[in-house]
Amino acid sequence: MSVDLSVTVGTLRLRNPVMPASGTFAEGLDNVVDFEKLGALVTKTITHELRTGNPLPRVVEQPSGLINSIGIPSKGLDHFVEHMLPLYARYSTPLVVSISAPTVEGFANLARAVSIPGVAAIEANISCPNIEEDGKAFAMTPESTERVTSALRSSTGLPLWVKLTPNTGDIAAVARSAERAGANALVVANTILAMAIDLKTFRPSLGNILGGLSGPAVKPIILRQVYQCAKVVAIPVIGCGGIATAKDAAEFMLAGATAVQVGTATFIQPDAMVRIIDGIKQFCLHRDIPRASDLVGGLVVEESDEPDMAWMEPAQ
Amino acid sequence: MSVDLSVTVGTLRLRNPVMPASGTFAEGLDNVVDFEKLGALVTKTITHELRTGNPLPRVVEQPSGLINSIGIPSKGLDHFVEHMLPLYARYSTPLVVSISAPTVEGFANLARAVSIPGVAAIEANISCPNIEEDGKAFAMTPESTERVTSALRSSTGLPLWVKLTPNTGDIAAVARSAERAGANALVVANTILAMAIDLKTFRPSLGNILGGLSGPAVKPIILRQVYQCAKVVAIPVIGCGGIATAKDAAEFMLAGATAVQVGTATFIQPDAMVRIIDGIKQFCLHRDIPRASDLVGGLVVEESDEPDMAWMEPAQ
Amino acid sequence: MPVSIQILIIATTVAKKRLSLAIEIALCKAVFFRDGRRMLQNLTLTNHDAQEDWRPTVSTETAVVLSNKAVNGEYRRLVMSCSALAASAEPGQFFQLLCPESAGEKPFLRRPMSVYGMRKAPPEVEFLYKVTGAGTRGLETLVQGDPLDIFGPLGVGFKLDLSWRSIALVGRGAGLATLAPLASMAAQAGIHVTAILSARRPDLLVSADLFRNCGADVVGVTDSEATSGPANVEKILRGLIAGRGCDAFFTCGSSRLMRVLQRLAAEFGLVGQIAMEQQMACGIGLCHCCVRDFNMNGDIVSRRVCWDGPVFDLAEAMP
Amino acid sequence: MPVSIQILIIATTVAKKRLSLAIEIALCKAVFFRDGRRMLQNLTLTNHDAQEDWRPTVSTETAVVLSNKAVNGEYRRLVMSCSALAASAEPGQFFQLLCPESAGEKPFLRRPMSVYGMRKAPPEVEFLYKVTGAGTRGLETLVQGDPLDIFGPLGVGFKLDLSWRSIALVGRGAGLATLAPLASMAAQAGIHVTAILSARRPDLLVSADLFRNCGADVVGVTDSEATSGPANVEKILRGLIAGRGCDAFFTCGSSRLMRVLQRLAAEFGLVGQIAMEQQMACGIGLCHCCVRDFNMNGDIVSRRVCWDGPVFDLAEAMP
Ligand SMILES: Cc1cc2nc3c(=O)[nH]c(=O)nc-3n(C[C@H](O)[C@H](O)[C@H](O)COP(=O)(O)OP(=O)(O)OC[C@H]3O[C@@H](n4cnc5c(N)ncnc54)[C@H](O)[C@@H]3O)c2cc1C
Ligand SMILES: Cc1cc2nc3c(=O)[nH]c(=O)nc-3n(C[C@H](O)[C@H](O)[C@H](O)COP(=O)(O)OP(=O)(O)OC[C@H]3O[C@@H](n4cnc5c(N)ncnc54)[C@H](O)[C@@H]3O)c2cc1C
Ligand SMILES: Cc1cc2nc3c(=O)[nH]c(=O)nc-3n(C[C@H](O)[C@H](O)[C@H](O)COP(=O)(O)O)c2cc1C
Ligand SMILES: Cc1cc2nc3c(=O)[nH]c(=O)nc-3n(C[C@H](O)[C@H](O)[C@H](O)COP(=O)(O)O)c2cc1C
Ligand code: FES
Ligand code: FES
């Protein structure tokens, strides 16, 4: 038996469901991973202007995880178009450009500006602060998610992926609003706001005080959010959070993810994405599953499994 | 030098800042831990009626963490008053009773019923679903937190601790509303909603589908929430989430916690609480800190550390 | 402290004071009540009144591996040097083992394992385990001299009535590990043991010699020989009851066999004890993840396997 | 594949085609451009056009420990048997080591370590490390035959201009590990080395013999002898420049010494290279956690130590 690994994310057909998470991928990885083997390539989030990112230290390790406060150092739009885009033109693998801006209009303008040949899709990182709403991230509420997604939708003809934040209290509602406003796929999710303290200095371990937690530690939380989102939207969900092995990827797909992004795992095993792709193939082979896409939403939930709403844990 | 480990939580003076987290403590632990050494004792959440808890399996392990969907099996109020309370009367360590109910009135009634000799404080586990609001946990919004806390406040003269959920999008706002409504302390926080899938059966690993993540994996997230809450309230914050070592406890205290609760760590090291108490003493001794309470809120944050709001990570 | 005499006090209602006294006199570490643990807890708490003499009754310690060898294609035997408290474990009790990482997998929870053997001097405790997942794969990596964090003895073990003359032990799989030390306890008490050991193949009947060395009559039944079916086991037991006679049943490891025993026990008015398994987190009654339903005189009651058991009244057990 | 000749191509603007050709002819694995990595990247990408022949140029592999011994009270030397690709590391390059767990601490990230030595046949790579935290405590536990997951060679190493006659290596602490293989590379290229090694005490001057065996003049300066101050190092260097002469400075491990070298380099119009450290997560340019500021002709530019370095132009480095 051979396994068909391809999946379809909106109008985009990917040769397999595995791609990097924004901010954990750059051209240097081609020293270790054959980019032609990946499902897609996803850039670090770019902004319109040049930005320097956050103060150091920018990472601190935790049990089974990493907190980062890299921020978005960006060489700006022009540098991206002139210098980065041509690099990726050499690959047949679709390029997804992650963008961010502090205002709705900024987002729309940037989306328009990157809607150019060589870009296969736009991933809007709306987990960034909205300066028009007191710095609260767009993706924290259904309302601002809907506003920014609508503006993005009317500014680009490219497939539009919207990347949500896990820090909201109701990610399913945010997911629905993004779908309603025209997103073609959701990326669930960005990092979880976290903190660590240096006991030698009694100061925050990160220059920015707060950072975002990623890696295996967050997997059970993000898996739950993928499940919650996939249940309420018809557009594809791309799972992202703590995926380090093919088994993790399979769990995300069963929970409803059409594809997965791998971030922190690449720092630990630089060829993690390739191992995951091979592993998904083996996983399907061993179970006589002809297409990786057959896994999507394959979770078996019986009536009796449905939580007793009135007393569900861990809403103890 | 000797170290004064005692801390004051509202009107309650504790011999040290370490106590069990609700649901991870019962009388059997006295086989391993001398209860007279602990700062306080905290019961498993009780309900008014007899309840059976959730379907099995109820736990599944994760990298550096545990997901549980125990629910609240409870033998009910009467059993508690008749059989459990007398057991704890033998200890000088203050007993904190954790309570839960599906309605505001149910909470108030239960608080009144347990306001009896032998109970030193009430911990209201408001991370449980409010059936008057579609099953959304009380602690998800400032409004329902305020409502239930007010009702609790007027129904008991005992110190009232309110235990928050980490699943809300704005825990600082919830913390403020609990304080406004008369809480004497906040417990931050309960478990984080999570999920795992059994790849042998393609079914959820937990009988309840969803469960709550606890253990070291959640520590950086809950530490951040303790920091956010302690910044905005004047009442004591009790940190709870992933604390396994004295260093973890010290981080929580520096971030603003007056005391800490230890849950999952006890499953891994049954005498974890005693080790943590001894460790806090050593920690203070080595640094010439005369009182453990001097650690509280001792985090050093300089102006330049304040995050650049407009671009703060991980709200990338 | 280590006491080897085991006494069964059949007492449904005993004034607490008197009971406490009786226990002190008998120097008995663990007692078995029809109505569960409550009285035992009260007793423990009474002792607490004098706080100065609080002492742990369950040990959490770093024991040292003496050996860790395969006994057949499926099972490995792990012998640990430990404290006297840990070595005071009774048959049917268990430990929670903090299994080491193996091949990058770090088991987060401890793993429950029945005591397979214990020795007082020098204090040792033994386990017999089957490698099935991350935790037991970690155990497999241990070599002589390695440390292993063990927590126990835990739970309520088997209890013998000294008036019994003959008992039947019926086990399968890892259940044989749990029953094995009961055979030597019975031998010490002068009670004859008939051990019906069930396995997939004859070569997997691990502890047969151990049972035999305790003077037990051993009957091996296997799937490969088609002798392990409930009907055949029932036939063997009926033969035992009709012949030598049998005062009590002890079982572990198969709910099919449990049902056979429950039926026969009801028919002949025999008592019985069963050691049950359930996934555990804390192992000491805190978390309620290990509950099973029991039929207590018609009421279905949820009880914690780690705390109320793992040994339960056979009649109350449900599959 | 393994090529030991190192060629410095000073080329600020070279037509890409020609460059690519030049490189193929020279069989040169790594080139050093004044304007950083961009051309090298383009080059790599050009090779990609023919997808069939994609090959990793950085190895992620399980190497095997040959030895792991203390060399003095502070440093340990770890020798690994590895692939030819890993053994092709150049002086100044580094590896990201996936350090094992020790005493229950599991380091989550890899740890960067400079190559301290390399051999082609059989392929080996060496590290010299100081135990400071969880990761290096994990390294300390390794014994012969143990596997260790290594990722490298990474980053831009030191480059030598074959026209140079004499160079000065100035290092302190772990910086000595980084500079050591440069001494033998210079020896092979017929360039004389003066090594000024700084440490707290004479017994901590670990690699002095290694430098001497490569024919280097070694000057040890130490805190305990009060010879390690900037003034004394400056005096020694002025002596060298005035005497034998010096074409370039190489340094690692001390920003105080860096400033001395920068001042002298400017005064005498000398070039220099510095290996820098910064906390790393990915090690290959993905995450931007390892940035430092550099002074590029007056502009303060943030660059990734793992990718744009760890070896940088001395004149551009900032403390
Ligand atoms: C009281 C008691 C005594 C036991 N005694 C023995 C014994 O003497 N010898 C022996 O080989 N096995 C025994 N078991 C079963 C043993 O605990 C499991 O085989 C072991 O936990 C499997 O862990 P793992 O990580 O290798 O497997 P995994 O399948 O990876 O374990 C995953 C999770 O499931 C739990 N689990 C898996 N199987 C069982 C099981 N059968 N019972 C309870 N939890 C399980 C694990 O503890 C862990 O939490 C006993 C179980 C209990 C409850
Ligand atoms: C390019 C490069 C080459 C290096 N070469 C050597 C060498 O040859 N020999 C040697 O002994 N050391 C070297 N170091 C330093 C070495 O990486 C650290 O000593 C090591 O990471 C400490 O890890 P730890 O877990 O033991 O300490 P911890 O202090 O527990 O580490 C905590 C975190 O800080 C990071 N960190 C701590 N110290 C340093 C440091 N000095 N530089 C960068 N990150 C650090 C760790 O990587 C980890 O992420 C080098 C560093 C870099 C960047
Ligand atoms: C170092 C680092 C930088 C990141 N930068 C970005 C970014 O620029 N844009 C973005 O949308 N997400 C960014 N993320 C978040 C990841 O894309 C991903 O959502 C998150 O790390 C969870 O996945 P993981 O657990 O597989 O790493 C970053 C994560 C890390 C660890
Ligand atoms: C098995 C289990 C049962 C729990 N039961 C309760 C409960 O009844 N009431 C409650 O408020 N919290 C309950 N919790 C949450 C804990 O009190 C605590 O908030 C959480 O586990 C985080 O702390 P930890 O990481 O130290 O375990 C439970 C947690 C676990 C693991
Ligand atoms: S395992 Fe925790 S109560 Fe039994
Ligand atoms: S360590 Fe990731 S960019 Fe340098």
Please describe what this structure looks like.
The complex is a heterotetramer, with 2 copies of chain A (316 residues) and 2 copies of chain C (319 residues). With 316 residues, chain A is of the alpha/beta class. Chain A has a single domain, classed as Aldolase class I (TIM Barrel, Alpha-Beta Barrel), CATH 3.20.20.70. Chain A has 8 helices and 16 strands. Chain A has helices at 76-89, 104-113, 142-155, 171-180, 219-232, 246-254, 265-268, 272-286, and strands at 7-9, 12-14, 18-20, 41-42, 59-62, 65-68, 95-99, 121-125, 160-163, 185-188, 192-195, 197-198, 203-204, 210-214, 237-240, 257-262. In chain A, the strands form 4 sheets. Chain A has an 8-stranded parallel beta sheet. Chain A has a 4-stranded antiparallel beta sheet with strand order 5-6-14-11, with no helix packed on it. In chain A, helix 2 links the parallel strand 7 (95-99) and strand 8 (121-125). In chain A, helix 6 crosses helix 8 (272-286). The longest helix of chain A has 15 residues, at 272-286. Chain A is globular, with a radius of gyration of 19 Å. Residues 305-316 of chain A have low confidence and may be disordered. Chain C is of the alpha/beta class. Chain C folds into 3 domains: 1-55; 57-154, Elongation Factor Tu (Ef-tu), domain 3; 166-316, Nucleotide-binding domain of ferredoxin-NADP reductase (FNR) module (Rossmann fold, 3-Layer(aba) Sandwich), CATH 3.40.50.80. Chain C is 26% helix and 29% strand. Chain C contains 9 helices and 15 strands. Chain C has helices at 16-26, 38-48, 84-87, 134-140, 175-188, 208-213, 230-242, 255-268, 305-308; strands at residues 59-70, 75-81, 94-98, 111-114, 117-119, 124-130, 147-154, 166-172, 192-199, 217-222, 248-252, 271-275, 291-296, 299-304, 311-313. In chain C, the strands form 3 sheets. In chain C, strands 4-3-7-1-2-6-5 form a 7-stranded antiparallel beta sheet. Chain C has a 6-stranded mixed beta sheet with strand order 10-9-8-11-12-15, with helices on both faces. Chain C has a two-stranded antiparallel sheet with strand order 13-14. In chain C, helix 7 (230-242) runs parallel beside helix 8 (255-268). Chain C starts with 15 loop residues before the first helix and ends in a 6-residue tail after the last strand. In chain C, 46% of the residues are buried. The model of chain C is unreliable at 1-50 (pLDDT under 50). Classes of the chains: A alpha/beta (316), C alpha/beta (319). Chains in contact: A-B, A-D, B-C. Bound molecules: flavin-adenine dinucleotide (FAD) (2 copies), flavin mononucleotide (2 copies) and FE2/S2 (inorganic) cluster (FES) (2 copies). Residues 21-24, 44-45, 66, 68, 70, 72, 98, 125, 163, 190-191, 214-215, 218, 240-243, 262-265 of chain B line the site of one flavin mononucleotide (FMN).
